[in-house]
Every structure is written in structure tokens, then in C-alpha cells.
Amino acid sequence: MDIVERIQYQDDFISEENINDNINTLWGKALPIFFHRKYLYDRFTRKYDTGDVIVALEYYISVIASGYFGGKEPQYKVRKINDTQKGILKKIFEKVFGDKNDPDEFQAIIDYITKYNDNGSFFYDCVKDYINTGACYGLIYENSNNEEVYAHTSSLNTIAIWNYDTPAQKIGLLRAWYENTVSGGIETHLEIITKDYKKEYIDGIEKAAISKDAKYEFKETEGSRKEVLWNDVPCFAVENPDGLAFFENVITLIKKHEQVIRNNANIFQYNDDAKLKITGFTPDNEAIIQATDKDGKPQVDNNGQPVMIANPARQKEDEVILNAKVFYTPDNTGDIGWVTKDINDTASENHKKTCLDMALMISGVPNVTDQGFTDADNASALEKKFFPLEQVLQQADHLFKKELLRMWEMITDRINLKKSKQYDFRDIEIILTRNLPTDTESVVNAWLKLRGLLSDKTVIDHLPYDLDSEAELAEMDAQNQENIEKNLENMQKIGQDTSNAQLNTEQGQDDKKLTENQEVKSEVKQENIKQSDTITK
Fold first, then answer.
1. Does residue 39 have a pLDDT over 90?
2. How much is the pLDDT for 157?
3. Cα 349 to Cα 56: distance, rounded to the nearest angstrom
């Protein structure tokens, strides 16, 4: 293999002092990887394939895997640490966790950022690139409106730079793009981003096409240098450790599958154009005769050899024989029939099915046309059919969660710096949900049975609907209060005594105030005890 799986250098290789000298070497490492990814992406689309038989199994495998893994956007939940956990963590690490982090406030900020960035679209685009090319990337930045933005960028022209730490850490991101010039050539532009700076470069040699063997001379674009004010390389980057696209290991099987179909098609075409075989009969005209000129003289070539052509009289004779309803042979030994190729349909179909089953088995993608899949009439049965794919995607699941948490670490540090907050990114729980049909009624019934054991907010959050639990609970409180007031009005209209109902309502409010006062007194008492213990010590 003539390409590396990933780009690795020591940290000082891309330092601002050395990058101008090393940018051409860096491009030399990246370009073969880009060409390989372009090959994989073309295998996925099969858009430029000129073969006469195209069975785009790569497309099927990628679409099913991408939709299953990336069809539902990630959920980010801020954990709430209870007093018992706080006590244990303080005892072990001698540090207070959770006191400075308002979970509800932090959750509201995360929800706002994800909606602003179209979180689902970003995640799916990254998953699709990872499945098709073995890598995916995104840029993290702050726009002119001071909004935190994360945006997908194509893996066909973006690559991460790693160091040699254990585990390897990202030290930079290289991004390329191509611009058409007025003279009809192509200019290559590069952008390199580290945690300290961002620079752009342009190739000084205009080219007709981009190739691996061409010579490149990159020079820094004047005025492009910008300072990076993040605590890390502001990018999202996930690269398959094995450097593999999802379908890369089964490309050979896919080609074999297409070859079987192509062979069958050729046999059918040959038989459709079959020749008629006749024995025991001699035609009246020769098949080939010497050509003559307009004066009827025989033609010869430059070497004095006769120029031979198909005999028109023989062609007419053959046409008559082919169109005749009855053909007679002059003796009993004659025969007539088509020259065809026999095809073993059973062996051919078994070979084709074996190639298909092996390709799908290795990739882990279920065959949606087999009987086992069509008979899966509930969510549990479908989950079993997708079990192999789930195992294949386990590595991707861990890689994406790790990188998403790193992305939120940078965003959280940025918010803490600008807003003087102390949110802890480690309190963010990343939930990746697979995109499978669900039995909504069963899920709802299961969670409703937990009412009383769990809070209403938790139950609402886990229902298979896009609901805002805080808003729903507020609406319920307002609705209950409105119902109480309407009941009181109706009771008054029919002359019933409403004093007890009003008393109960007021009593409930008084009880709520009493509980709040008791909680305040308890906190004051605990504080006094702490101060007394401090003075004693």
C-alpha cells in the first residue's frame, strides 16, 4: 500500500517557526490519502463507473449503515450529582463537584447551541463520511454574532495531523480546496489550523489537473495568519484506526458478484445472436469473393494480393434460408439447429448468492430482501437482524462519543471564559441512539408504569416524542390551576359552599411556603454548626 493510514509528526514539525519549510512535505503525505478517499467515494456513488453491469452494493451498505448509526441526532444531557455522590467525590478527590455547575442552566445553553447548529445534520454528514471514506471532520469557530459554531467539512479534502503520544493527540488540521483560474488552470489552496495559529497557502505552479506526481510549491498567503484563541485544535476529527471505509473489505466480493451477472448476460446475449448451423447442404454461392472495380476488373492491394469481400449473392441466399418456413436437406444425414451456449442456472445463482451473502456478512449489514428480515414484524426482531451491524459499529460509537465530548470541552471552556462560568464538560452525557423502528405504544406504557417511582420530568424526557419536559410541566401546573379556578366558579354558580375548597387551596400554598421556610432554617442551622465547629477547632 503506497499511502499511510494517518499523518503523524512531532509537535514542532508544524510549529509556526517550521511550518513554512514543511508545508510541501505535509501536502505530499496528504495528497495520496485524498486520492484514495476519492476512489472510495466513487465506489460508493458508482457515478463515474463505465462498466456495463453495475450493482452498487457499496451504496446499499453505506446508506443502511449511515442511516442506522447517524439517522438520529446525538442527545446531550447534563448529569445531576446527588448529595451522596458529592460526598464520596469530595472525600476521595478532596474537591467539590457539582456545586458550581447549575445543571438546568447548563442544559439550556447546550440545547440552544445544538439547535443553532442543526445538530442532526452535522452528525449525519460526519457519519456518512466516516462510513464511506474512513474519516470525518468538522470545524469549530465563533462567528461574527459571537455564536459557537461547529460545521461539517468534507473528508475528501480535510485530514488531521497527529503526534506520537500515547494515545496520539491531534496537533493540527489540514484542509485543501481548488480554484479555477482565468487562464483555465487550477490553483491549489491549503489551510492549516493548530491550537496556536491558522494560516493559508497557495501553490505557485498553476496546473491543468491535480495529480500525485506533479510538483507543488506552496507559499504563505500574505495577511492570512490568524491567532487561534481556543484551548485545543478547534476541529472535530474521527479517523478509523485501521484506515478502512465500511465496505472496503468487500470490494472484491462485490466485483465477483457483478462478474457473475455479467457472464450470465453475455451468455444470454450470445444465444440471442446465435448462428444457424446447417449440415448436409451446400449453398450455391461462395461466402467470400474477390472485389471488383467499377469496370468489373478484380481489385488487388499494394502487395498484389486480391481484395476479398463478403459475397452479396451469398448474403441474399442465407437470408432466404433464414426466413424460409421449411428447409429441406438433400439426404438423410442433414441437420439444422442453432449454435448456443448452455448455462447452469442453479450453479450460477448459487455463486451469485454466495458473493452477496459474504459481502453483507462481512460488512454486517442485513439483507432486507431475505425472508428473515421480511418476517421481522416487531422491534425486537428487527434489533436481532441488526445485531451484527451493531457489533461492527461499536468502535465507531466509542470514537464518536470521545470526539463529541472533546468538542464540548472546548465549547464549555469558551463559555466559561467569556461568561465567567464554571461549567464542567464532564457532566455532559452523550447519548447515541440507533435509528430503528420502535413500538411507540410499548415504550410509552413502560415509562408510564414508572410514574411515582421516577419524577414526571424523567418520564417525559424518555417518551418517544420530541417534548420539552420543563415546558410540559409548566403547562400542566397552569392547566391544573385553571381547572381549580373553573371548578370554584361552577360551585359558586350552583350555590355550593366553596370555603372548604378555597381553604384547601390556600392551605396547600401555606404548606408550600412552610416547607420552603423550614428548608431555609435548616440551611441556616447547618451553617451555624459549621461555624461553631470551625471556632472550636
1. yes
2. 95
3. 18
